[in-house]
Every structure is written in structure tokens, then in C-alpha cells.
Amino acid sequence: MDLSKKLSGAEKRSSKPDDLVILWTSGDREVALKMVFMYALNSRRFKWGWKTVTLVVWGPSSKLLVEDRELQEYVGRLKEAGVKLLACKKCADLYGVSGGLRRLGFEVKYMGKPLTDYLRNDNIRVITI
Question: For domain 24-128, which architecture applies?
Fold first, then answer.
């Protein structure tokens, strides 16, 4: 029996997404250094198959980033490698860090609808950390 006949249309379409969105919410510095930033950077450097890599800063990660110089320097490397930088405006405003994120090169905007669109798009993989 041909298994492909049993798959729904959505499963067939989503076999090889082109775009990656990394939703970084953790306020843990080690998570940023040892997973989020490392994977985002190396995905671009070594061309692991993603046409685009987007980092979305949301919640406690926004405050951590604005306060940590080493993380800020790493974000500069992400930007140079072509990672798109986005931040949730509502969270950034709550933490008082919207201006700091903009200075680091982030586009600060309301992210609820864009995140929903990412999650519903078969061509995008979203990982949350």
C-alpha cells in the first residue's frame, strides 16, 4: 500500500520547509549561548538548508539581551550572518527595553499575529526555546 496516499495534503506540503523561526523566550543566558545563538549562527554559516533564519526575542530574553554585553556582541554576529532580528514590542515595552533592542538592530513590533502566521505556514518551522 502506498503510504503517500494516506497522508493529508498538509503533511505532503510540509515535508521540507524553507524558513526557520527561532522563538527565544528564556531568560537563561546559557540557553542563549549554547543553543539559540549557536544554532542560528551555524544554520547560516554552514548553509543547513534554511533559506531564512529569523530570531524572535520575546519575554524575559529581551531584558537579558539588553543587559548582557557578550550576548549583544553575539547578536552582531547573527546580524552579519543574515539572521533576521525581531522582538515583541509588548514584552519589550513591559521590560522597558524597546529602545535598547532597536539599537541592537532588532525590528520591534507586536508579534502575536506574525507568530500565528508563522505557526500556520507549512513552509516555516518554528522552534521555541
Answer: 3-Layer(aba) Sandwich (3.40)
Element (H, E) at 50: none
Residues written for the chain: 129
18 is written with which cell numbers?
A: 524553507
Best CA proximity match to 59, nearest among 33, 108, 85, 26: 26
What is the model's pTM? 0.88
Beta pairing class for 19-24 and 124-128: parallel
- C-alpha 14/C-alpha 8 separation (Å) is 10
List beta partners, residue 8.
none
Bridge-partner residues for 21, per DSSP?
Answer: 54, 126
Q: Per-residue pLDDT tens for 32-53?
A: 999 999 999 999 999 999 999 9
